[in-house]
Amino acid sequence: MGTVVVDANFGVALIRPLPYSRACRNRLEEWLRRGVGLAVPALWDYEVASALRKQWAQHLLTREAALDGRAWIFRLPMQRVPADQALLTRALLWAEQLGQITAYDAQYLAVSEWLGAPFWTADRRLYHRCREVGADWINLVE
User: Fold this and answer.
1) Are 136 and 112 in contact (CB under 8 A)?
2) pLDDT for 142
3) What letter does residue 120 receive in the DSSP assignment?
4) DSSP for residue 61
5) Is this structure's pTM higher than 0.85?
6) Is 140 helix (H, G, I), strand (E, B) or coil?
7) Which residues of the chain fall short of a pLDDT of 70?
8) Contacts for 62 with CB less than 8 Å, ≥ 6 apart
9) E strand or H helix at 6, and its extent?
10) DSSP 17
11) Which of 69, 102, 106, 132 is surrounded by the most beta carbons within 10 Å?
12) What are the distances in angstroms from CA 123 to CA 110, 119, 140?
């Protein structure tokens, strides 16, 4: 069974058609069928909401689609991992190791490391950078 960690671009792809949306949907259906747990840092909800608002403001997504999609995705059986001192410390260290100014992406790595769970992203740059620094539990949705 196990657990996987997904990032915000994975969530957005479940709502708005993107080049990797089908792969995200297929992956999600497979995980749900197999009883695999989904986990995200608490930051995930805010990142998904911000991305949907941006898509909506750019007229790439209707208001209704953004709101309906957000309601649907919130009902997914997903463990939202709250921040604590240890996770935030690991996120800061991951951000340093990845050479990032912010620690947003690093939050996902900290959670996946803490849970011992594979991390899934559609962000190619993040995927390659993580692999370069030895995070071999990161997977690219294609």
Assistant:
1) no
2) 84
3) E
4) S
5) yes
6) strand
7) 1
8) 56
9) strand 3-6
10) -
11) 106
12) 17, 11, 7
Tokens 């620690």 belong to residue:
103
- Domains along the chain with CATH numbers: 3-140 (3.40.50.1010)
Secondary structure class of 78 (helix, strand, coil)? strand
At a CB cut-off of 8 Å and minimum separation 6, what does 1 contact? 34, 35, 36, 37
Please list, residue by residue across 24-57, b when 16 or more beta carbons sit within 10 angstroms of its beta carbon and e when fewer do.
Answer: beebbeebeeeebbbbbbebbbebbbebbeebbe
**In which element (H, E) is residue 39 found?**
strand 37-41
User: CB-hemisphere CA count at 13 Å for 63?
Assistant: 0
Burial of residue 110 (CB within 10 Å: 0-12, 13-18, 19+) is buried
**Of all helices (H) and strands (E), which one includes residue 40?**
strand 37-41
Tell me the C-alpha distance between 119 and 8, whole Å: 12
Residue 138 three-state SS? strand
